[in-house]
Amino acid sequence: MRKIDVRKIEMSGPDDTRVLKALIDEGAVDPKTIIAVLGKTEGNGCVNDFTRGLATLAFKRLIAAETGWSEDEVSRKVAFVMSGGTEGVLAPHALVFCSIEAEGEPSAEKTLAASSGFTRDFLPEEQGTMAVVEECRRVTLELMEKAGIADPADVHFVQIKCPLLTSERILDAQERGCEVVVHDTYESMGYNRGASALGVALALGEIPEGSVSDEVICSDWSLYSKVASTSAGVELLNCEIILMGNSTAFDSDFAIGHSVMKDAIDIEAVIEAIENAGMKVDGLPTTEQKARIVNALAKAEADSTGYVRARRNTMHTDSDINHTRHARAAVGGVISAAVGDPMVYVSGGAEHQGPDGGGPVAVIVRR
Amino acid sequence: MRKIDVRKIEMSGPDDTRVLKALIDEGAVDPKTIIAVLGKTEGNGCVNDFTRGLATLAFKRLIAAETGWSEDEVSRKVAFVMSGGTEGVLAPHALVFCSIEAEGEPSAEKTLAASSGFTRDFLPEEQGTMAVVEECRRVTLELMEKAGIADPADVHFVQIKCPLLTSERILDAQERGCEVVVHDTYESMGYNRGASALGVALALGEIPEGSVSDEVICSDWSLYSKVASTSAGVELLNCEIILMGNSTAFDSDFAIGHSVMKDAIDIEAVIEAIENAGMKVDGLPTTEQKARIVNALAKAEADSTGYVRARRNTMHTDSDINHTRHARAAVGGVISAAVGDPMVYVSGGAEHQGPDGGGPVAVIVRR
Amino acid sequence: MRKIDVRKIEMSGPDDTRVLKALIDEGAVDPKTIIAVLGKTEGNGCVNDFTRGLATLAFKRLIAAETGWSEDEVSRKVAFVMSGGTEGVLAPHALVFCSIEAEGEPSAEKTLAASSGFTRDFLPEEQGTMAVVEECRRVTLELMEKAGIADPADVHFVQIKCPLLTSERILDAQERGCEVVVHDTYESMGYNRGASALGVALALGEIPEGSVSDEVICSDWSLYSKVASTSAGVELLNCEIILMGNSTAFDSDFAIGHSVMKDAIDIEAVIEAIENAGMKVDGLPTTEQKARIVNALAKAEADSTGYVRARRNTMHTDSDINHTRHARAAVGGVISAAVGDPMVYVSGGAEHQGPDGGGPVAVIVRR
Amino acid sequence: MRKIDVRKIEMSGPDDTRVLKALIDEGAVDPKTIIAVLGKTEGNGCVNDFTRGLATLAFKRLIAAETGWSEDEVSRKVAFVMSGGTEGVLAPHALVFCSIEAEGEPSAEKTLAASSGFTRDFLPEEQGTMAVVEECRRVTLELMEKAGIADPADVHFVQIKCPLLTSERILDAQERGCEVVVHDTYESMGYNRGASALGVALALGEIPEGSVSDEVICSDWSLYSKVASTSAGVELLNCEIILMGNSTAFDSDFAIGHSVMKDAIDIEAVIEAIENAGMKVDGLPTTEQKARIVNALAKAEADSTGYVRARRNTMHTDSDINHTRHARAAVGGVISAAVGDPMVYVSGGAEHQGPDGGGPVAVIVRR
């Protein structure tokens, strides 16, 4: 019997791991049980955001020091997914998942289950293609098994960190006579996010077998997952995946639920996600209920039409602030208001993750 | 007997007055009845935001052309208050107030009342001082009378456009041997916004007689108005004031209510404002109720502590995006979600307007 | 016999026309002789820069008021080219060109000649295509004749303001069953800038007859003009063109020369342009020589490779500041240092205007 | 006999130390001889710039791995000064100084000398006060001796990394009943930069003994050093100092010279600095001369008046881009153009470092 422990820790900067260190020092967290660290760091969340790499390095060094493992060993055992951008009220933080051996018998009730894993490395010419789709599909299915989840309906959030193309990687492909999916390195982020999400959608049967090919990636927006959340980063060549759901194989103090925001201000979907996690809400959560909400995890993006509820916004025409930053700020406000806490995980760029302008939202509650 | 008509019109750019033109052309709006235009324009809302001036110029020219009045006449008859910044989902728009002669008897029910007026021009050395406080107090009281409001509790929103100091104006004061309140032109915006708001607070009896002096302006934050909303702009030397409330002297199709957001994610206060306007809400407004909400008007600001609900945010430490832009984006998301419409009026910089990090919120509903 | 007078006037804001007003009041400028106003305004120079429209409106209103012409008449007689973006040391200003009847005999020496004109309006589906190329070619040739310039080598700067696509214009084309060159409105700026520049290149014989087709626009960068400088703006549907050169048909107090900057720090090219205008320079201009330089006009852009002189820069990877703003700031520094004056005209986005990462630079000197 | 070796290495990102690693691997650099690493990293150079810390961590880790020293030992032996901000054409890079035992006799000619050292840690209440001034003065004098420089005129650049106040540090002072110099953490950067620079000015006799007190720091701008260049960072509590000059005690292949830029476009001062380093220049450096210029090091800032050469700029009124970023972009363009290389070190914020709007500029040339 196992249980998943979740710790939401504040960060005073991208390299601040003091809270996790204190939890380890006081025995509250056994560093060898950590399977994943999911972070929201305070960079711009775009191309030149180095806070993601700095946070990954800081947590990796801490866990290596506390476990005695090498940094490479830590990299093979723990999934690090850092998402940049804490616009508006959003609070920089990390969510640490521990998988702990627990005593007792399996309970009848499904509780929070989580597992993490890795795809193989991708060649530059494979990025953003079916190669990524297939590997993410394969690992998602593995992680379901690892988390003791048989029914795809019990999977509520699949967080993936995927690679991106750089000038060097593109050159490498070209020197071997291969062509990459796109030459713009910024756009390659979207292709990899989209391909990863479609892999999840196939694994969970959200879209029909055979519906995905290289051509539909970042092109046919009718295909999407309602639980995938993917982020690209320069610091890796494979995908790191964290799967979350509910299972009777775990006896955790937590449960998770999800819904899909139809657009950036769909607060009703956030309430649905809370209820889907097993907490009945009357209008908005009460103070007591808010205290039991551990975190909300969501994707945000500017609707490609430039409109929300038929009202024009300026997210796409503002040449001073990137539209992903506008979107995170607004959606961060909406979700923070719903759960009564600005320390929530809102990530930008939702290709094939929910409908245009919307995205998946999951909520973890203390049972 | 009079009634107030309110028209919320979309703007495809700061100088787009086509919707108002069409309403005038089709006879829905009589240009001579317009008493105020309150706009949300798509600049950065900070020092170098010229969309406010452009929008003012555009609406002034249209009204002059349609009424046959000179632009100067229009300036003396209509209050133009343009607030810059439509971050996140916020939609650029203008709210046009018309005061119309109506037939019939006074109704027993209080309905939307509005009036607009102007203080005298201020010398540079008077800006941000008791001179502004006193004038705003005086005109607020006049506007209450003009709107047929006797009880300060029936005043729900007082929007003021105030001046700011420029290098030229400071020099002018110095050449006459006078000292200005602050030499930083950006900071002078805050002093004028604060002084204007305190004038409203005195007029409405929100703070004790004699509690305001030059020293407390932008210093003693315990003094504030719960209904004042003030914006500074370079384009004027006096204050333009729009007062909104409910009165039996008007037989309008609308009513207004307000509340105070304690912080940036206080969605409960937005619901309170809706209810205060006479619409009973169960949790969140229904689709039918949302259709009857004309607009929400609110002030947003980054809490000076850098924290919301004890969670650190990066609004004050982000050197790429001004904190007022972060605040409008987040609060804009919250209010849009509550009323189901991103075309709401959220303005930044709330000195002496509600508590630190919070601010007044008013809602106009169709009865 | 005619002469061209050039007035460089400072602007304290995008709508500040006080200096020109004063020059008219004191009789130094006859408003009816103005043929063009070329401005550098303080917006971001990108999509949501409304300072260009505001400045155009302000100057148009002033000239209408001072001449007694209607604003429409002014539009047909005077070319207004406003370019946004005054990053770094660049000073907002306008350059006013007057074409004046002068007494005396034609001089043997070539002096500053200038003329302005307009293409026909373009349908949305014509934007960024050969239709623009051909019209700009035609008008450029007309303007040469109007300026008394027979030899293309005597043309030193051709400034064009061209239109761009908006969502409305794209829709209009589609409703008539026509296709536009690109659906991204931002990218349409580049296509129109490029097409306009190629029209100039054809008119002046800089590239071979028949070398331009729809396919090469914004695609074959080996084709470019060394004297074209083009800017796109939402406020017009045709192209406004100002041509500058030297001619014996004018007896001006000024002369113009040009060169091509090979990259962003090619200060040697700026010196060459000064010398090309007839001022012999030893190293850098002396204080006396600097006083005789009226203005420098140049195009700036970030090299598409991300490198200048084989050194990596971050103009293309900085997600907080648009690369055109980086480029104007840097090139503005270089040119200001060369001529000893930060009030110079540096405009961004140089498709088919000089080589990748470089661009034309012209200098007007007092003889 | 010793010699200073200087290596300018490109960085493809803030944590890219590959070039230094390669130099060590091929035996070109002995890691134990490194005394200082001076870097220009690609963050925004303001409060939330984490690229400085990331680069420091990366170089520290590399040197620790290559020398076998602990990271703490490296910290005590090597000065790391990272300055953020590579706007415009500026290229991210690091300058590595090695102090090497050399054979042979002292030469008659003065060549590049360099030394590095550290002040004691400062209490929060000491930051930005005479405590910093005195310690920087003391260590500067020590470093002169260490570099074999007796005459202050032979000191050409003193680079200091100083601390800044954080909310935690201010709280710590207050809990001990002490007051800090300023509560705004951003402003504390300026006080520390200013105090450090005044310490250098006193050490070198640039300002009279007794002229500095707490009151004049960041207040009396007539007091400044012509060779100090100071940067604040959150990652340290003391000052790290790198002193550069010329001395007969060293037999280096390099020499250094300096001058003071009077304003942001004072390219003549850059030429003077090159000549001061011993390279006679006719106008602008030739291609051969440019190849011998190793690096230029300069401070840039926006003139507090908002004017350069009596021309208004918008660096202080642009609410989208911090004025320090504007200044680095412009000055970076000027200096890159003068030396023909965009890989130069231009740092922002020049309190008490050269006159208002200007700053020191030093040039290192290969003899």
Automatic annotation (TrEMBL), chains A, B, C, D:
Coiled coil: none annotated. It comes from the Bacteria. It catalyses: cyanurate + H2O = 1-carboxybiuret + H(+). Residues 111-248 are annotated as: RU B. Residues 254-367 are annotated as: RU C. Inhibited by barbituric acid. Keywords: Hydrolase, Magnesium, Metal-binding. It is an enzyme of class 3 (hydrolase). The active site is at K161, S231 (nucleophile). Pathway: Xenobiotic degradation; atrazine degradation; biuret from cyanurate: step 1/1. Belongs to the cyclic amide hydrolase (CyAH) family. Homotetramer. NCBIfam families: amido_AtzD_TrzD (TIGR02714). The monomer structure is formed from three repeating units (RUs) that share the same structure as one another. The monomer, the active site and substrate all possess threefold rotational symmetry, to the extent that the active site possesses three potential Ser-Lys catalytic dyads. It is possible that any or all of the three active-site serines may act as nucleophile (albeit only one can do so per catalytic cycle). This is Cyanuric acid amidohydrolase. It comes from Rubneribacter badeniensis.
